[in-house]
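Dock 3-isopropylmalic acid; give full complex structure.
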Amino acid sequence: MSKHNIAVLPGDGTGPEVVAEAVKALEAVSRKCNVDLQFKEFGLGGDLYLKEGILLPDDALEELRGMDAILLGAIGHPDVKPGILETEILLRLRFQLDLYINLRPVVLFPGVDTPLKDKGPEDIDFVVVRENTEGVYAGGGGFLKKGTPDEVAIQDSINTRKGVERCIRYAFECCRKRNREKILTLCAKTNVLVYESDLWDRTFHEVHKDYPDININYQHVDAMCMWMIKNPEQFDVIVTGNMFGDIITDVGAIIQGGLGIAAGGNINPEGTAMFEPIGGSAPKYTGKNVINPLATISAAQMMMEYLEEKEAASIMQDALKKVLENDIKGLEAGNMGHGTREVGDLVVRYIEG
Ligand code: IPM
Ligand code: MN
């Protein structure tokens, strides 16, 4: 029997509710497929910070580093100034565990509404590979003469050859593995960002020599936002930097049906990985049993794929599809026709078959 140690970080707001449903689904599929999942919960988040001033202690970080995977609910608390929890927990985990890939599939499942007119599941099925540790997120910069009329604010975008290359290589591999249209599109801004996008573009073409079976394409980030809406069917895999990846994956989330379903993985292919729903902590829905757990269950499904539990991952995928096609009225909180726990129960029922 294969065994995996899973860290569970429910986090803030509705995080614990959605994570509970994902754990329920994981427990059901592990029983079915004979996989041993050992869960360990970590109480990090806004409440712990407000009570004890603790964000992400070094010993927790080291313990997380040794886990096979991490399942995260949501980070963000209404009583904590925006930026503290995000930077000190979420971003710190991404940096310290060197989770350099942010993998965000954009898939429209049958039965899910998209705001795109005349587009269906056959048109919306691609993956965004977002660099997850560099760019403006690296935190370089500073103020000069802060608070005076002569103030200067500098925000550096850090792009290393190593960081760019490992991300691009992962994207080529991902495109080969998907084995669909075999088109990898680079999203950058070579017409303005003449240093960073130039590095991305040069590296992209150099790495392409190792992947002659993959066709390459390029879009500026502004045009990318337009094409994702106008002709999403042209995309197979998209690779991009941290900031542009953040932006275009919100476009991706909405065309696949919104935050109720969008999930992603923060991955270090040589280390551990952390899976999360793309939506936030949704404080106003907390404790009401109305939030949609499917994005988190989808994140858990991606986690099983990452752990190479192929059968379990495919059973979870099928269960998700069935709930979306047969049972769910809408994906928004309070609009599902079922409560959070009941949606989790439905997924479990399909997993158990
Ligand atoms: C995301 C989020 C984060 C990001 C925030 C919460 C720091 O928007 O995961 O896309 O910008 O990466
Ligand atoms: Mn974002």
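Observed: The pocket of 3-isopropylmalic acid (ligand 1) is lined by residues 86, 90-91, 246 (CB under 6 Å).
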